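Q: Structure for this?
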Amino acid sequence: MKEILKALINVFLKMPQGFVVTLKHVFKKPVTLDYPREKKPMAPRYRGRHYLERYEDGTERCVCCGLCAAACPADAIYMEPEETPNGERKAKVYEINLLRCIFCGFCEEACPEEAIFLGQEYEFSDFNRDSFIWRKEDMLVPHPRKDNPFKRIIRRVRRVYGVPDAAR
Amino acid sequence: MSTSTTTQPAVKMVTLTINDQSVTVPKGTTVLQAALGAGIHIPTFCWHPKLKSVGACRICYVEIEKMPKLQVSCATEATDGMVVKTESDIVKRGRKAVLEFILANHPLDCPTCDKGGECDLQNLTFAHGLDDSRFDFLKRRHIVPGVPSTFDDLRIGPEIMLNRNRCILCYKCVRSNKEAFGEYDIGAFERGNAMEINAAPGEQVANPFSGNLVEICPVGALTNSDWRYKIRVWLTQTTPSIDIFNSSGSNILFYKEDHKNRIFRTISRRNDEIDDGWITDVARYGYQLVHSPDRLQKPLMKKGSKQVPVEWEEAVAFVARRLAEIDDTKGCVCIGGLASPTLDLDSLHSFSKFMRKVIGTNNLDFRIDYRSLPEKPDSAFSTLSSQPFTIAEIDTSDVIFVFGSDLVKEHPNEYLRIRKARNFGRPLVYSVNSFNVKSADVADREFIYAPGTEEVFINGLCLAAIEENPGLSGADGLKRKISPADLNSAAKTCGVSAEDLKALARTLINGKKISFIVGDQVSLSRDREVIAAALCNLNRLVGITSRGQMAALARYADSIGAEKLGLIPNPHPDVKRALTDLWGGFPEMAGYHTEGMFSQMLKGELDAMVILGANPVAMYPDHEAVAETFEKLDFLVVADLFETETTAMADVVLPLASWTEFAGRYVNLEGRIQKAERAIKPLYESKPAYAILADIAAAARKPLFSSAREREEEIEKVLACTTVRPWPGDYLDVRPPAIDKDPAYPIMLIIGDDPHHRCYVTEKAASLVKFCSDAYIELSPELAEKFKVEDGDAVRVESKYGKLMAPVKVSRVLEGDVVFLPRNFSVTRANSLVSRKARIDWVRINKVSG
Ligand code: SF4
Ligand code: SF4
Ligand code: SF4
Ligand code: FES
């Protein structure tokens, strides 16, 4: 008899309590993201896919010095320099193999010209291996740049280290 | 006139203490060299082992006890009892300060600088410098007006770029240019903070040794277009090699990248016994021809009237079959072969065995551009050219006699040696030629004899020697054999006064150590035998070789090797014996040399020709006759790097691998065997000559060697025979032949290499072409005035045998009725003007109007 009573209480009192919790959650904001329709902004110092900076006037910052390739623990960077008509040094070929890259950020740290940065981009899956070799043209920021979200960060870094933004 | 000869009494020694280590060195040594000898490293910028010290950079500071201040070790002489410290705190502080001062004006543009990774300043700053910068003012900047470059680079020569901001003013470039090369096209201008290095006003740094300046610049101030912005030095590997454009065989180092299978640059690999660390631009940039897009890529075979690419197997089988056919129908006397003396020993020996063993003929030669070769095998000239010669002995000679050679063009390395001997000793240097030469600037006196009177001049020298010292043995015997037999008429004929001849003879008699260099004016002369006989007489009379050395210098990288391996129809008897022993036989027939083969070809008695790496149609005297000769051939197979005038006439053309693409050994003019390692894999389908010959022999079912080992052992055995021919036992007859001169052709033509080119291949090296891209007629200012021409005007040069047109270059050295024409350019082939039969090439020129 006692057991039957207990069961009845469970059914009519505790179960609705549970339902109330469920019901409450139906009206709450969800914690998950509706990826890929919805994306989460990454932390400012997230190390995603690389991009190559330009000077204000659009010239590439990278001079193809080879230090990033020398610093790279995964040997993911390949480059070939060339001479511009002005006798300056610039990259003819600059490639990063994103399959080899371990996103350590050493290249960014090594770069004396502040040319290479690891960005926020993390979506670069593809169907063949070749498409993971990113060329210079793929990584250069567009010029004139459209609303570069990183500009502020770069400016701040420069300020902290006291590097003037080389006006060209 | 005494110099430091090797046999001098013992030099005084001094003992000093460096870092608690006792070091004993000869008096006069600097503290720096004493330390280096003891294995103690002292950093340097401005010091160079082959230049005089100037003490300009002060990084080599050391502390010397009892001296109040730090001393520069490179300019301080070591004395007895000196106590030197190289690593004390005060020395370290001094170095830091010096580096700080240097960096005060040195831009921090290492990322864009070509020297990054091998820069002395980078390395020393890393090792000894301050971690931080204390300067916050603007650096000195030399801006190039009109060039919108952020680096302020300035082109000061066809190959050389200068960045004055990076220059640390060590003066190494200016000093080496002046001291070692005798050139003044780069200098230091202004003073104080504004001081700068620059090309001399209105000039370009384009001397034939200019590449060395880039190599010794301790920072990235001087760079060359060859290496500039191609690759970072730490990504390259190095391969030791040999310069094959020069008979001295300067030691070089290739920087290459294995994945790309590409050589990126050449630097010197200092060998004090040969090159002192200086190499010519031809050696430095010559490697570029290996990567020329014009390289032959596949074997070509004539089908119909056109040469079409075929596979190796087909070409090889065809060559083997055709040679066998001709051998069967006409006999092996109808097959001949020429091999270039720039090939390696393996190839040359394979060639000799191929011709003699597989084909069975003695028709083979390596002398690809001599006129009228001697009929006799043991001639006076072969004696002269087989004499031993040691490059380093030039340093300590007290009399240096250069006879008939424009050293800068023919033997640049020896030219630098003579200059060094003059810098560090006091030798008497004489340059004797039939025309004025650039290399006479190292000479105390230059003598010009009348064209074609070499033997009269030497006779005159003998007669003068007899007059100076009548006691010389056999004087009467000699006088009977030579004509003219009296000094005055000899002097009159050769145009050098009797007094001068006597003075020269005196120095030859009194010299303690003589280096007597005989050059191309003799080697290439039609009458080289007569001249050589005169030189043999001179040596017998005065005894030059008993107090030094005298030789006609080898002309190509492996000439001596070819001679030693018996690549002539009638080799030295010892070589012949060795070859007979090795092969169990030797062709009976006499064999024809190059000249003989050509006349046989013309007669239609020689039907097939195998040519390795040579271009006789363009290089052998008398272009038209040679071309006609080659047209008569039934079958011609040529292996070469490029398509040339000769390959154009060939039935089969085989792509040859260059000396960078396989390991080979070469014998330089001293007889020194040196190895050039393989730097890259053979490009395209090219193969080394020895491999090609082995393939053809295998296709003919007569394999050459069972293994590479066997080949090497055979070479070893043949090289072991001496080929030095003894001086003749008596005076030789010297009767000067008549000189053919037609008043219609009044000007003497000299043909040779441009200082930036060598033979017919270097026009494929892009950097060398920047120095000189086209043939020119170099003529004396007198002639220029006479014909009213200036630099760049076109003139027509005409000889009895042909004519051509070329732009004028007014010479700085030539005088009188002489013109020079380089033979290196395919558009203007100099050999069309000359004949095989003439002693002197006489031409006339006239201006092309309009
Ligand atoms: S992030 Fe690291 S692994 Fe990736 S390219 Fe840069 S240095 Fe190499
Ligand atoms: S990205 Fe930076 S470190 Fe890499 S080559 Fe360019 S300039 Fe040098
Ligand atoms: S250019 Fe180079 S070698 Fe010449 S003075 Fe300057 S640093 Fe020295
Ligand atoms: S190396 Fe001694 S002062 Fe420059």
